Amino acid sequence: MIKYESQKVALPYMVLSLCLFVLQVIMGIWLAINYAFALPQSLVDLFSFATARAIHTNLLVAWMLLGFMGGSYFILPEETKGELYSTKIAYLQLVVFAGTAVVAVVGFLFGWTQGSPLLEIPPALDVLIVVAALLFVFNVGMTVFKAKEKTLVQYMLLGGVTFLAVMYLFGHPFYKSINTDFYYWWWVIHLWVEGAWELITAAIMAFILIKVTGVDRKVVEKWLYVETGIFLFTGIVGTGHHYYWIGAPDYWLWWGGIFSALEPLPVLLMVVDTWLHVKERTKPMVNPLLWTYIVGMALYHFLGAGVWGFIHTLPPINYYTHGSQITVSHGHLAFFGAYALLNMIIFYYAMPQFKNVRKYEAKLGYWGFWTMCVSMLFLGLTFGIAGVLQVYLERFLDIGYMTAHFTMMFWFKVAIFFGVCFLAGVLMTVTHLFTLKPAKAAEGEQVLEGY
Predict the structure, then answer these.
(1) Do 184 and 173 meet the contact criterion of CB atoms below 8 Å apart?
(2) What are the domain boundaries of the chain?
(3) 8 Å CB contact between 32 and 165
(4) Where are the alpha helices (DSSP H) in 391-435?
(5) pLDDT score for 449
(6) Quick check: 416 and 33 in contact, CB under 8 A?
(7) Is 204 within 8 Å of 346 (Cβ atoms)?
């Protein structure tokens, strides 16, 4: 079922991405244990919270980027109707990126870190990440430019991966002023997740919606124009909701808080509009699980990044909640809804084709989907409750951190429970993807083309 030979290069990206996803979740459960219990000092000295947190967050970035990269390499040949520019570059990029990630994690264990949250990778390794990013942008760009047929999806994807690489550069310089340093730090963190990654999300979603439903390309692509427009007017301006604590002008707070909440809207609108045209589709819905993921991703994206983000980043609220467990709640819901489910959509689109399975048994996949989604919802709510307690006790009543934390420990025990449930859902999903089996055809049923 693989239409182009070069699509096979995407498989190791996806396999490694899923493995890192499992490791990231395990490390997240360990962090919850650190919050919920007073661990022996000898264990803390051996494996500190800061080290575990650096591994957890960097695994998040690594597995998601690997998913984006593998997904891009899989869909580009179909979209351009030709092979990738170079599979050798793609494999070299994987070796450089994965090798750097492994060295970085080992380095964290020995205290080799830059210290900046989410950007802990030391400068020497940053250079290798830049090399991998440049290889990726070059390969994607040359594939698009040599394509005989140009589409908006191609250009949107190229724009997203280029913007991703450029923004990473702003995290490299070191500034003596912590205000200046964090100003540019947000250029990386915010303009990645609410800028470049949003463009990549829109492009991949548009491609898969076209393939899954057979709806006219114009129906889906019109929302790509909306996504680009909203990104330009809200993505950059939305960075301002992070400027509360670094002395930027006050007007950034309201502009940033309101505009950043609008960014997931076009993704939701894209799915809603396509859903209205499903009745006119020319392809049967052979594997409904994929469509379940698409709808789930759009709704979770809008809830976690949009609604919860909007409430949390309003200036009068952000004054008290900034950097609290409420931020953690928003982060988990937003990342899972916007990007974890996006990667799952990519994998469920590609894996059946790698295994030459048209219609697959989906029972375990559904169990994995609902277990992950429900567990993450309750996990986000649990962090939110702990955050409300934290804000009230620490920032309203001015109670000390450790005293306030004792009242939160019960909720972190609850978080461990839902974290383990989420891990079970992840393991079910990964197992299902790795062991896809053809569905048993009912008597008289014909094998239909489609996804």
Answers:
(1) yes
(2) 284-437
(3) no
(4) 401-434
(5) 47
(6) yes
(7) yes
Which residue, among 160, 128, 127, has the nearest Cα to 141 in the 3D structure?
A: 160
Q: What is the mean pLDDT of each run of 10 residues along the chain (451 residues)?
A: 91 97 97 94 90 94 95 95 95 96 92 84 91 96 91 91 91 83 87 86 87 81 77 79 79 78 69 68 79 88 81 82 91 92 96 93 97 97 95 92 91 97 98 93 50 54
Contact criterion met (CB below 8 Å) for 415 and 386: yes
Could you tell me if 1 and 352 are in contact, meaning their C-beta atoms sit under 8 angstroms apart?
yes
Q: What is the pTM of this model?
A: 0.92
Give the bridge partners for 116, in sequence order: 119
Name every residue whose Cβ is closer than 8 Å to that of residue 412 and which is 6 or more positions away in sequence: 32, 35, 36, 386
d(CA 50, CA 293): 34
H helices, E strands: number in the chain: 18, 0
| Rounded distance between C-alpha atoms, residue 252 and residue 318, angstroms | 13
CA 106 to CA 102: how far, in whole Å? 6
Cα–Cα distance list, 92 to 77, 87, 95, 450 (Å) = 19, 9, 5, 33
Residue 296 · residue 353 · CB < 8 Å:
no
Nearest one of 341, 417, 340, 413 to 375, comparing CA atoms: 417
| Helix boundaries (H) for 169-196 | 178-191
- Measured between alpha carbons, how far apart are the two ends of the chain, in Å? 11
Task: Enumerate the β-bridge partners of residue 119.
Answer: 116
d(CA 419, CA 26): 8
Residue recorded with tokens 């309101």: 258
Burial status of residue 295 (CB atoms within 10 A of its CB: 0-12, 13-18, 19 or more)? middle
